Amino acid sequence: MTKLEAVVRIFNLSDAIFLEKVQLILVFLTEDLALFHDFDVDFSQEYVDLLAADIKQLQNMPTANQLTNDITNQTNVVLALMDDAKKKTQNTKYFIEKIPVKPPRILSEFGFDIYDSIHNSQPKMLQFLKKFNDAVKKYSVPLLEVGFTQSKADEILSLTEQLDTANTLQEKLKSQRTVAVDDRILLMNKIWKKIMHVCDASKQVFGNDYARQKRYIIYNTPNGQPPAGTATGVITGLVTASASGLLLKDAVVTVEVAGTILTATTNAEGEYALPEVPVGSYTVTATLGGYAIATHENVEVMEDEDTTCDFELKANG
Fold first, then answer.
1. In this model, does residue 1 exceed pLDDT 60?
2. Of 69, 66, 64, 50, whose CA–CA distance to 7 is shortest?
3. Which of these, 294, 270, 268, 297, lies nearest to 281 by C-alpha position?
4. What is the 3-class SS of the chain, one letter each residue?
5. Which pLDDT value is given to residue 229?
6. What gap in Å lies between CA 167 and CA 173, rounded to an integer?
7. Residue range 294-312: average pLDDT?
8. pLDDT tens digits for 84-136?
9. How do the domains of the chain map onto residue ranges?
10. Are 124 and 113 in contact (CB under 8 A)?
């Protein structure tokens, strides 16, 4: 049998920040679509329309909190009905004990032998009420003689039916929440992959136009920003060929920050810059076709300062 895998998020943003960020990226992509299309024809109007449709569908989906609130409200309805049923059945106990001639275990026939185990268990409460209502029918005549009216019996029967219906709805909501939350996560994962595709392409589309490239940066943190209170700096440098000193254009320099890969591409002068890097120590990598990958470890980024990280790439072979 195939084991079912849990549906998990492939991102760390909160739902609200996720929606805010992807909507913003969609706006930027719509504005810059011609540039993206020139770089990669996959970025078409159809691509934008499908992404917009997915985001619209997400907006119309209930959130996990909304679904939880529905369950909580229904649980409160169930608990209120249970409390009412407990009070009314306890009142009935008074009339049962008034019956002059009765079997020694009559209270057990009404379910009071399991009453103490009920607490807040809906299934046990429904089991008790079924037993109770059956006994009310059986002893209807002697109960009527001691003042327990048919209307009282009807109230408890009605409460039983209401509780059964409310309990069923509560369980249905719990089941629906699981399915709905999974469906929402799957859609958000789909949107996230598309947005990351856009963000990755933006690094190539805008090259060293850092102001425009910055609009497409999303940190994979709950608030979509560098960790709270974290100051930032810039990693900058030159990429050259180690043998000739030739300035290398289109080399890709990357650094991973809080689960997000920041990328810059060198210009014709071999220059690159990685802005908005939180203060800390990083591993920075440079790659270019025909050359071996180069890596610098423990690159220290200081607050509001440019950190120089130059690369000399060795030709393959």
1. no
2. 64
3. 297
4. CCCCCCCCCCCCCCHHHHHHHHHHHHHHHHHCHHHHHHHCCCCCHHHHHHHHHHHHHHHHCCCHHHHHHHHHHHHHHHHHHHHHHHHHHHHHHHHHHHCCCCCCCHHHHCCCCCHHHCCCCHHHHHHHHHHHHHHHHHCHHHHHHCCCCHHHHHHHHHHHHHHHHHHHHHHHHHHHHHHHHHHHHHHHHHHHHHHHHHHHHHHHHCCCCHHHHHCCCCCCCCCCCCCCCCCEEEEEEEEEECCCCCECCCCEEEEEECCEEEEEECCCCCEEEEEEEECEEEEEEEECCCECCEEEEEEEECCCCEEECCEEECECC
5. 60
6. 10
7. 91
8. 999 999 999 999 999 998 898 999 999 988 888 876 788 889 999 999 999 99
9. 8-225, 228-313
10. no
Count of residues for the chain? Answer: 317
CA dihedral of residues 269, 274, 276, 282 (deg, nearest 10): -140
Topology of the domain covering 228-313:
Immunoglobulin-like (2.60.40)
Using alpha carbons, select from 155, 183, 165 the residue that is nearest to residue 122.
165
d(CA 78, CA 7): 30
Beta strands 280-287; 294-301: pairing state: antiparallel
What confidence tens digit (pLDDT) does each residue in 229-270 have?
Answer: 668 899 999 999 988 889 999 899 999 887 778 888 898 889
Please report the pLDDT score of residue 139 as a whole number: 94
- Amino acid at position 48, single letter: V
| CB distance 189 to 220 below 8 Å | no
Measured between alpha carbons, how far is 22 from 20 in angstroms, rounded to an integer? 6
The single residue listed with the structure tokens 């649980």 is 75
